[in-house]
Every structure is written in structure tokens, then in C-alpha cells.
Amino acid sequence: MPEKEIIVGRGRKLRLRPIRTDDAESLVEMGLRSTPEDLRLRFFSPVRPMVGHLTSLLTEFNRAAHIAVAAYDPAAVDEEKGILGVVRLVLSRDKPEGEFAIMVRSDQAGHGLGHRLMEEMLVWARDRGLTRVRAEIMFENKRMLRLARAFGGVVQPQTQDFRTVHVAIDLKV
Ligand SMILES: CC(C)(COP(=O)(O)OP(=O)(O)OC[C@H]1O[C@@H](n2cnc3c(N)ncnc32)[C@H](O)[C@@H]1OP(=O)(O)O)[C@@H](O)C(=O)NCCC(=O)NCCS
Hints:
By secondary structure, the chain is an alpha+beta fold. The chain has helices at about 25-30, 35-45, 55-60, 115-125, 140-150, and strands spanning about 5-10, 10-20, 65-70, 85-90, 95-105, 130-140, 155, 165-170.
């Protein structure tokens, strides 16, 4: 997937690029600039930002079935450098569906990057003919639930795990 420019907030120009196998350190840096609470909401349990099993899972995956991009600011200096947000979509093997996950670096939240990354992920899904995308979201994650609902997300009937809800966005074909 080629790099592309996106505009967020009041005209800030960011770029989207695919997550690379050598991004482990950059993801750790993103984690260090995020709150423990945001990390917990993303990964469903406390996470210590360090290179290891989790960063391997997040960087070394089957690129035919798993799309992941990072947003960065090409003009950034100092603390604005690095990965500012990531969105990923994992395609189902047996049906035209996918599971998405998203994270915006805590110090970058609330400026529209989450919305923009969701839009991007939904374009991938539609381009691939998916009829639905899903996400598992922690029950108390009101911000993410609002974000998903803004794109037509509907909470599915309760799952076994009462800490999380499943949200589905149906895509018109
Ligand atoms: C949930 C999360 C992805 C939202 O990202 P974000 O960049 O803060 O999202 P946005 O800025 O697009 O939207 C957040 C709020 O800012 C507002 N906003 C501010 N400027 C905006 C703009 N230019 N465009 C759109 N929305 C804007 C939105 O309306 C929204 O308000 P609301 O929460 O009252 O509905 C982010 O907080 C996060 O990564 N959380 C931790 C990890 C997590 O929970 N991941 C989900 C697991 S699937």
C-alpha cells in the first residue's frame, strides 16, 4: 500500500504508511507516550511498552490478511515525532468480514485522527468487498464506543466475556 497524505483537525497534514516489520521500537515509543489506561483499553489488560511478544504480533503478520497503517507527521519535531496512531483490519478467513482495532497516541487524541483512521479502514473494507467489520471493545470504553457508533456501529448481543462488547459496522454493498 503506498503512502498517502491525510488531513486531520484544523488542516494538519499527516501521512499514512504501512506498519513495517522493523516498527517494534516505534510502537514502543508510541506506547510510552500513551497512558496506561489507553493501553489497557486497546489491549484489554495492562501492557508495559517494551519490545517483545506483543510488538512481534503487531509487526510480523500475514500481510495478505492483515492491513495495518501508522499515521505520522512528516514535519514533526521533538515529541510530535513518531507514530501518532495505528489502525488495523484483519480479514476473516471464511466470510467477507474483518476485525479492526485502532489506537491514537494519548497526547494526540481528540483532534480527529481517530475519525480519520476509521474512515481509512472502512475504505479498505469496502474495496475488498467486506459486508461487515467488527471490533471487540471494553465495556467502559465510551470514547471508542462513540467513535464506532459515529460510523454506524451497533453493539451486538452480550458475549461470554462481560468485560467487552462486540460492535459491528454493516457496510452497504
Ligand atoms: C478511542 C480513540 C481511538 C479515539 O481517537 P481520537 O483521535 O481521540 O478520536 P477523534 O479525535 O477522532 O474523536 C474523539 C473526539 O474528538 C472530537 N473531535 C475533535 N476534533 C475533531 C475533528 N477534527 N474531527 C472529528 N472529530 C473531532 C470528536 O467529535 C470526538 O468527540 P466525542 O468523543 O465527544 O465523540 C483513542 O482515544 C484511543 O486510541 N483510545 C485508546 C485505545 C482504544 O480504546 N482503542 C480502541 C480499541 S478497538
